[in-house]
Amino acid sequence: MRFALIGAGAIGTVHARLIEALGNEAELVAVVDQDLDRAGKLVEQYRGEAFATPAEVYAASSADAVSICLPSALHAEYAIEALQAGKHVIVEKPVDISLEAADRLIEAQRSTGLTVSVISQRRFQPPVAQIRTAIDTGALGRVTSGISESAFFRPQSYYDGDDWRGTLAIDGGGALMNQGIHALDLLVWMLGRPVQVSAQTGMLAHSGIEVEDLAGASILFESGAIGLLLASTAAYPGRPVRLTIHGDQGTAVLDDDQLAYFASAESGEPEAPVLDGPADWGPVELAHLAQYRDFIAAVRDGRAPAVSLEAGRRSLATVLAVYESARLGRPVELKET
User: How many helices (H) and strands (E) does the chain have?
Assistant: First the structure.
């Protein structure tokens, strides 16, 4: 599959590396950035041709698919443009910063019939797959609760480094929208449809930003299960993601990218899948590569990708409900997600 990369910043560089690691499965044919020099440097490091605008790529290149690696508020706009040009799309998380934008993208995907996947690479980690298998096979019984903890740290320089970081208009949110959304997505994937959120947020360890560096929430799910959420960029020095899923017949804990604890009254620990990739890559990088492989297979086989636009929308809706609840100081009901 021939990829065009839209955005040559830090996350764009990550995607270029992923595409290169796919070997014969994929090829980077174009890099787009309004800073043409930056696009050129990425092309020199990897391959392809540098362009200043997506329109130039769609007119001149042979790309089959586009990877959207831009600030959050631009995701849907540029993904829709790619779909209208006949390209399949991988879009970085979050799918966008508003449900209206996400819905426009979903409509464009449905009308074109092309494939779109939202990055949520942690779903592909072997221990996460083990927990999901345990739920699907009944090894945990009825799922009753879950805890998602993203206790990260970002120095002030992280927000000061780009003028769009920490802004409501472009970043859309802070510790939850941009960091904690990965673990939140896992919590929602495991527990089902969220129906009510009660939350608080704060900005405690940074200055000059419009978004939170701390969010805590209680989430009620349609099944009756309750989820607890912590997302932070104010927890020095930062800890790995921790996810706990409890059921009436078992418990599973993800910690530091490992299945740290598993107990089931029904069965033993599920078998962990093995991910292929460079030997020196970490588990999150290998999972990211696995999502690219799933996307390529989805296009080839004419099936839905493992992480759909609808899944990305559900996670975004939950994030926005957290923000609304914190702003209003009361629980918020989620509409259809």
Answer: 10, 14
Report whether pLDDT(61) > 80. no
Calculate the CA 121 to chain-centre distance: 6
**How does residue 337 score in pLDDT terms, banded at 50, 70 and 90?**
low
- Overall size of the chain counted in residues: 337
pTM of the model: 0.96
Closest CA to 324 of 99, 6, 63, 14: 99
> What DSSP string runs through 143-166?
EEEEEEEEE-B--HHHHHSSTTTT
Residue closest to 335 by CA, chosen among 1, 100, 96: 100
Question: pLDDT category, 107, cuts 50, 70, 90?
Answer: very high
The pairing of beta strand 116-118 with beta strand 226-232: unpaired
Cα–Cα dist 128/256, whole Å: 12
Whole-number Å distance between alpha carbons of 306 and 268:
26
